[in-house]
Structure formats: C-alpha cells, structure tokens
Amino acid sequence: MRNTQKLLAFLVVGFFMLSMNWSKNTQISLEKKTVAQTDSTIKYDEATGLVVSEGLELVVAHCTGCHSSKLITQFHTDRQGWLEKIRWMQQKQKLWDLGEAEPKILDYLSKNYPPTEKVNRRVSLKNIKWYKL
Ligand code: HEC
Question: Does the CB atom of residue 71 touch ligand 1 within 6 A?
C-alpha cells in the first residue's frame, strides 16, 4: 500500500514538473513570436501594399493609375532596371513624362524594391486586378 502511495506521489510530482516545463517552453515561443513581430520595421501602405517610405505618394500618384500596385511590389530590380521599365511603359503603354518626380520615384523603387534572389523563385502572380483606363 505504501509503495502505491509513493508511486502516486512520484507521478504527481513528475507530472507537475512536466507541466511547468511545458508552460515554460510555450512562454518562450510566445516571446519569440512577439520579438519577431516587433522586429520588422517595414510598414506597408494599407490601400496599396506598397512600402511606406519617402516618395510613396509620388509612386501612388504616378504608378497605380493603370495597374495594380502588385505589379510593382512583385518586381525587383536596380535603379537602371526601374528606369528601363519606366521608359518601356512610356514608349509602349502611354506612360506620361514623370518630370521632376522621376528621380524621386526611382529612389523609392530602387530602395524598396531592389534586385532580390527571391524574385526568381517567386511564383507568378495570379488574379491581378486591372484598373480601367
Ligand atoms: C499609362 C499606364 C501606366 C502607368 C501610369 C504605369 N504603368 Fe506600369 N505598366 C503598364 C502596363 C499596360 C503594363 C503591363 C504590361 C504587360 O502586361 O506586359 C505595365 C507593367 C508594369 C510592370 C510589370 C513589368 C513586367 O515586366 O512584369 C511594372 C513593374 C510596372 N508597370 C511599374 C510601373 C511603375 C513603377 C509606374 C510608375 C512610374 C507605372 N508602372 C506606371 C502601364 C502603366
């Protein structure tokens, strides 16, 4: 009889310690999560999904009239690449002269959407919403 009691007590203590350890672990993983969330300092514009950064207003004004901003956010290239893209749209897609806004738009694009390895591995976008011209 005594042995059974001992065994029971042992089990209870063991269980208690296990659950303590379990809650400790979950606490740690919860902490990690919060850290990861507060870690990302990049903010995204709610309406367009574009990175909030200097020049955003210009990009919204000049670049989201014809097509979804997704076309921009999925594209990554350097300043020269962005310039070529703009020139191409000006020649083929009736994009207007960006004037003084052009260097600022290029600053924004090359800073926030620079070339990345990921872009090649990314699956191509589906269901792009087109705006009526
Ligand atoms: C006058 C209309 C118009 C405006 C304004 C416009 N675009 Fe475009 N853009 C287009 C069209 C049309 C396409 C789609 C071409 C296609 O489907 O091949 C396009 C495609 C794109 C693409 C995808 C290119 C690719 O090869 O995948 C990017 C990136 C892009 N535009 C960026 C911009 C940026 C940045 C601006 C602002 C400077 C802008 N667009 C303004 C008409 C426009």
Answer: yes
